[in-house]
Amino acid sequence: MDKPFSPSSQENQQPILEVIAPRLASARSVLEIGSGTGQHGVHFATALPHLRWQCTDVPGHLPGIRCWIEEARLPNLPAPLALDVDDDWIDAFRDAGYDAVYSANTAHIMSLAQVERLFHGVGALLPGDSAFLLYGPFSVDGRHNSESNARFDQMLRRNDPLSGVRDLRDLEGFARVAGLVLEAEIAMPVNNRTLVWRRQP
After folding, report:
1. By residue range, what is the domain housing residue 88?
2. Which of 31, 52, 163, 165 has CB atoms 3.0–4.6 Å from 98's, for a disulfide?
């Protein structure tokens, strides 16, 4: 198959790397949930050779991710694994020793119930004092930080009423139950943010 390509992933990978690299300096194994095309996995594994970067996504996306990984031939980038937050996925990943989780542009294409399951799984998987790095567009108290994000939210909900830009207050509620606290909220290009959650001991 042809290797999939996402222009937005190409554009945002370096700004994201600059934010996450110092927060992963002491990590050794990262689980990426919702790897999409696989571009981020290749870029980050190349730049952070001390990390084992594990790409995952729903089964239908794995062939495309595999194209990127097989072409890159990086020792710290294994074959992608299937992960669907609607499944009982935690036990399958629990013994792998992940000490950080990363996910980009996933929360707004999930239902709110799926986002809650995402946080529950991350909280159950991570050891204490580990980071969950979540990138994408987010609102705060129902307010978007740009007109473009408001229009994007409307478009998402027209196409799928269960999707939509997620509000930080909802995420904080899910995080609290999962044992995660918001450590940093970092403004990114094109009105996105990187949210840094920390697993409490």
Report:
1. 7-199
2. 31
